[in-house]
């Protein structure tokens, strides 16, 4: 299976190299890549360029022998927002990406001359498909450049606003960069247009606009009202450009809902104050009952014993029955067997927090794995490991089914509190 994936990836590598900036996904690939490989890839990008870095990244990737490397790569793409590339690789169908590529090369060809006769509509249809993904970043830049270099449009002095990357600092704009782009648009009368992804919906307050153009985009009704709210200048207009029947239908429903909301508000305003207050009180009481009842429903813990395996090499680490919860949110493993499964390296900067003193980092004991499992701490008088669930795979002993958890609180097993009496003297 892996051989086939490797063969396919090799066959399609030209696409990947053209699209992927590997530095966006490296942090998600840490279980698979060694530190020096990561450094090489960064250096290659800085010294030679993104495509060279992508090609080196693929070389390292294709050399990986550990089981699960391919899934790891796909997960990293998904995390970094490369949804187009993810889908293409998962289905080994690069048609959409190929079309994107045509437009990208069209833009590249046009940029030097920027003939004023070019119709933006020729370029835009493909842009929309990736407006929320990493792939669009480059195209937004191209669109900006195109406006800047087009003599009839250059007076618009476009700015760019994208979302903050999900968890990776390398993707998207940082908060200060977003603020800077918005300030330039708001206070500097020069910047007359802001090219934005759906971030305009995410509660960022954009100055009065007299024109909002939504391209192939429709959210829910709240988003729609918010987006229109962006066009707050007197007489401002909001246009939706689309050729997609589903988008049109959604927008019609939104317009209807908006009308319903406005009608309801007008009606409410005719009520007398006492009736209104009484009604609000009733609703609040009802909602409180619902909230209280929901808050108390703790998921039933799964009492069945399960295995924890190293997420990288799948080596056995411990059983859930041996896990103990320290101070409600730290997880340790009791028993001697576990101590043989990890190795520790002294922490360069030992730190204390609460009753804990962080002393070392612990890693999977398999020499060719060394996956980061967590830390070793001194807790009161005990020297104990503290593991993080995101370093492991949880395996059902009976069925062999495996599950991944990002946080301990999502993993509902029987959580036994740490008890000093259990510890060896
Ligand atoms: Zn391991």
Automatic annotation (TrEMBL):
Domain of life (superkingdom): Eukaryota
CDD domains named in the record: RIG-I_C
UniProt cross-references to SUPFAM superfamilies, sorted A to Z: P-loop containing nucleoside triphosphate hydrolases
Binding site for Zn(2+): 310, 313, 364, 369
InterPro entries xrefs: CARD_dom (IPR031964), DEATH-like_dom_sf (IPR011029), Helicase_C-like (IPR001650), P-loop_NTPase (IPR027417), RLR_C_sf (IPR038557), RLR_CTR (IPR021673), RLR_Helicase (IPR051363)
Domain spans labelled Helicase C-terminal: 102-276
RLR CTR domain segment(s): 294-425
Pfam families cross-referenced by the UniProt entry: CARD_2, Helicase_C, RIG-I_C-RD
UniProt keyword terms in alphabetical order: Antiviral defense, Immunity, Innate immunity, Isopeptide bond, Metal-binding, Phosphoprotein, Repeat, Ubl conjugation, Zinc
Name the UniProt record assigns to this protein: RNA helicase
Organism this protein belongs to: Felis catus (Cat)
